[in-house]
Amino acid sequence: GVPYTYAIGATEVNLNQYTAFLNAVAATDTYDLYSASMGLDSNIAGISRSGSSGSYSYSVIGSGLHPVTYVSWFDAARFANWVAN
Prior knowledge:
Blueprint: H1 15-25, H2 37-40, E1 46-50, E2 57-61, H3 73-84
Antiparallel strand pairs: 1-2
């Protein structure tokens, strides 16, 4: 075991959760947390981005309960840090 308390999610991160994260931290999107593929893949629900750098906003396409896709390991680490803090 580990000598500290930790939590782990029981399900995939869904579009609603990742969109809330993007709206909270990615108005400029310095770390490329959003992938254009999130809004272009017609086979899945996704996330769209509007506005310009400094004032980007994000919204869910389709059902927000679908798992988010096109997320890198680094994006996931930043999301986990955001959730924890």
